Amino acid sequence: MTAKLHPRIQTILYEYISMVQKELPLQGFYIYGSIALGDYSLELSDIDFIAVTDQRLNPDGIRHVEQVHRLVERKFPKPNLNGIYVTWEDLGKLQEEITPYPFYCDGKLTAAGYFECNLVTWYELKHTGITIIGPEASDLAFTVDWGQLISLMYANLNTYWQRWIVQSEKHLSLKSAALYFRSSEVEWGVLGITRLFYTFREHQITSKARAGEYALLIVPERWHKILQEALRVRRGVKKSMYASKSQRRSDALHYMKYIQKEANAMFE
């Protein structure tokens, strides 16, 4: 294990890997995402992992890892393990280039599908991944084209995030209700789109919290309250900065549209 990891995360990984290795030798195991970026909450963050085996898991292997995940989650409800089971040949590739693989997300194991198979995942693995088993992440035999990554992130800004904003603006929609009632939705929307803004400006990938802190230094003061509210949620602080959920929802949506416009202006 590495000293970079919180003791509870080390304990969870030790339990998980010890049980998995009894029947399924892992050739590689890596942590990426918010934990690897140093921006995690033991209550809010997931343990994002990439497990590498010499070949696709067979039905016995899938049953084994599913059982291990259930045992680990029963003993350690938080933080959750979310990750993929791939081969060395899969690393760095997009879903149209590889066959479906097993993955575990939100308490469910899917035997064959695609999850987190994108250039952001591979970039984070290569540049900030934490090696638990196998060769150092920085030495893995693949590269990520930065220009292609930016193009895909730009498309994400104007597809996923555009739909997210539009659906959340509809007053009777489930998305709108979620943004009104759930602080986690505010955090997801405000900091998620801000993270893209940071990458487009600074040509680096950072955590959501650091992107939010960065934006506080860049954007007009009128947006500071909603940014601070999103950062409050990210940090697990209980008391909201808003007396009105309606105002919070409105500020979140107006801020996100502002950031989308500012980000798009960089490509004009």
Task: Please give a structural write-up.
This protein is an alpha+beta fold. It folds into 2 domains: 7-139, Beta Polymerase, domain 2, CATH 3.30.460; 146-265, Four Helix Bundle (Hemerythrin (Met), subunit A), CATH 1.20.120. It is built from 10 helices and 6 strands. The chain has helices at residues 7-20, 59-75, 119-128, 146-158, 160-169, 174-181, 183-202, 208-218, 224-235, 245-265; strands at residues 28-32, 47-53, 81-87, 101-105, 108-113, 130-133. The chain has a 6-stranded mixed beta sheet, sandwiched between helices. β2 (47-53), α2 and β3 form a beta-alpha-beta unit. The longest helix has 21 residues, at 245-265. The model has no long low-confidence stretch (mean pLDDT 93). Residues 190-257 form the Adenylyltransferase AadA C-terminal domain. It holds the Pfam family AadA_C. InterPro entries: AadA_C, NT_sf. This is Adenylyltransferase AadA C-terminal domain-containing protein. GO terms for molecular function: transferase activity.
Characterize the biggest β-sheet.
6 strands, mixed
**Strand elements, count:** 6
- Broad structural category: alpha+beta
Total domains: 2
Low-pLDDT residue intervals, each spanning 5 or more residues: none
Radius of gyration: 19 Å
User: CATH architecture of the largest domain, please?
Assistant: 2-Layer Sandwich
H-E string? HEEHEEEHEHHHHHHH
Strand order of the largest sheet: 5-4-3-2-1-6
Q: Distance between termini?
A: 46 Å
Helix content, binned percent:
40-55%
Quickly count the helices.
10
Approximate strand percentage: 5-15%
Q: What would the CATH topology of the largest domain be?
A: Beta Polymerase, domain 2
Shape call: globular
